[in-house]
Design the sequence.
C-alpha cells in the first residue's frame, strides 16, 4: 500500500459505507488576518498563500475604507473619534 | 445638537474621516449630509458631531455647502454612454463573419461601376483639354493614377 508522507498536506479521515476508514489528503490554507489593535479576525481579506496574494486584485486584499486591511471597523471608528476630540 | 448647519465627521464607510455638514433632518435616525462627503442620507450613529454651526438654508445645494466649508467643488463631467463591446465566441462568430462578407461583396460590386464612371468622366474632360493644346502623354498617365483601389474590409 502506498502511504504518502508529506507535511504540506493535512489528513482527513473518511468512513466508507462498507465500514472502513480511509485517509484523504487535502491542501492546507493559511490562517485569517487579524486586527493589529484588538486581535479580532478581519473581514474582506482572502485567505491565501503569499503567492496567491501577490496575484490577487486590490479589492480582494482589503476593504475600501480607511485603515482597511489593518484595523477592524470598531477600532477605526474609535481612532477617528479620538482624533476629532483631541483637536 | 442635531440641527441644519452643524459640522460633523463621518465615522463609517468609504468617506470615513471626512468633514460634512447636516443639510436636512429626515427622521429620528436619518439625516442628509454633504461636503467633502457624497451627498447622501446617513445614520446619526455614524456621525461625530463637532462644536461649530454654519449658516445654511434647509436643503442647500452642494455649491453653497462648499462655500460655507471653504472647499473646492469636485467637478465631474458626465461620461457619454457607450455600449460595451460584446465578445462573440465559437459558432456565433463564424455566422457573423459569413453574414458580413455577403453584403460587403454586394457593396464592392456597386462601387466598381461608379469608379468606372468617374474614370470615363476624367477621360472625357482630358480629351477636351488635349484638343485645346495640351500634350497627349498627360492624358494617358492620369487615368491610371486616378483609378482608386477597391477597399477590402
Sequence:
Amino acid at each position: 500500500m502506498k502511504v504518502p508522507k508529506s507535511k504540506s498536506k493535512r489528513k482527513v479521515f473518511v468512513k466508507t459505507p462498507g465500514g472502513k476508514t480511509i485517509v484523504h489528503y487535502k491542501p492546507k490554507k493559511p490562517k485569517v488576518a487579524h486586527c493589529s489593535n484588538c486581535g479580532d479576525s478581519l473581514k474582506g481579506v482572502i485567505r491565501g498563500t503569499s503567492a496567491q496574494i501577490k496575484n490577487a486584485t486590490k479589492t480582494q486584499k482589503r476593504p475600501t475604507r480607511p485603515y482597511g486591511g489593518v484595523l477592524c471597523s470598531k477600532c477605526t471608528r474609535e481612532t477617528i473619534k479620538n482624533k476629532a476630540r483631541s483637536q | 445638537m442635531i440641527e441644519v448647519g452643524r459640522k460633523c465627521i463621518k465615522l463609517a464607510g468609504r468617506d470615513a474621516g471626512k468633514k460634512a455638514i447636516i443639510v436636512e433632518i429626515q427622521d429620528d435616525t436619518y439625516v442628509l449630509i454633504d461636503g467633502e462627503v457624497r451627498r447622501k442620507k446617513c445614520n446619526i450613529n455614524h456621525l461625530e458631531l463637532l462644536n461649530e454651526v454654519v449658516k445654511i438654508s434647509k436643503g442647500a445645494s452642494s455649491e453653497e455647502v462648499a462655500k460655507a466649508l471653504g472647499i473646492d467643488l469636485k467637478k465631474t463631467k458626465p461620461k457619454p454612454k457607450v455600449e460595451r463591446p460584446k465578445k462573440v465566441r465559437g459558432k456565433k462568430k463564424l455566422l457573423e463573419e459569413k453574414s458580413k462578407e455577403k453584403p460587403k461583396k454586394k457593396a464592392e460590386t456597386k462601387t466598381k461601376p461608379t469608379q468606372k464612371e468617374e474614370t470615363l468622366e476624367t477621360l472625357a474632360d482630358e480629351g477636351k483639354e488635349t484638343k485645346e493644346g495640351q500634350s497627349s502623354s498627360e492624358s494617358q498617365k492620369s487615368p491610371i493614377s486616378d483609378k482608386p483601389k477597391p477597399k477590402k474590409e
